[in-house]
Design a protein that fits this description.
The protein is mainly alpha-helical. Helix content is 66%, strand content 2%. It has 8 helices and 2 strands. The protein has a two-stranded parallel ribbon with strand order 1-2. α2 runs antiparallel to α4. The chain is globular and about 45 Å long.
């Protein structure tokens, strides 16, 4: 767990939270750039999570599929463009981010686990928010848009997603 303040300060509050979680046995740290940490997490989740719901398989299998691997790289490039537009440089290439996930081995994303358990899907929080920001900034993101739309349709078909009315 990473704690920090949006204004890039090192606050006693964030330090205290990180310590409390560490004392409880959780791996936790405090950072002066929590927005970057959030963006780094999103950088991978924005592609792996929704596609796992569409494909119904673990991350290693998706990465090993050449077409899906290429799509992940493009989705991450589009996410990086959104990040640059808001002043955040993830500092990692899609190739390196995909390799990081590959090293984890066989894992099911949280969104796939939710789908399999019949729990609501976090589509808007994971990919919808990135697409919304990209749209507002005029960032071209055809792969993110397509996967977002497909995941919304799949989630609705499974009864695990209700579009806002």
């Amino acid at each position: 767990m990473v704690f920090g303040e949006p204004n890039h300060s090192n606050s006693a509050r964030a330090e205290g939270l990180a310590k409390a979680f560490a004392d409880a046995g959780f791996e936790s740290t405090c950072t002066d750039n929590v927005r970057l940490e959030i963006w780094l997490k999103l950088f991978g989740n924005v592609s792996f999570n929704p596609v796992s719901v569409l494909a119904g398989v673990s991350t290693d299998r998706m990465i090993d599929e050449p077409g899906v691997h290429a799509m992940f790289a493009q989705m991450m490039a589009e996410t990086a463009a959104i990040g640059r537009a808001i002043g955040i440089d993830a500092g990692i290439s899609p190739v390196n981010r995909i390799a990081m996930t590959r090293k984890l081995g066989t894992i099911k994303t949280s969104m796939l686990q939710d789908a399999e358990a019949g729990r609501p899907l976090e589509i808007e929080a994971i990919i919808g928010a990135a697409v919304e920001v990209g749209r507002k900034l005029g960032v071209t993101m055809p792969f993110l848009e397509a996967v977002y739309g497909l995941t919304r349709l799949r989630g609705a078909m499974l009864g695990l997603y209700q579009p806002a009315t």
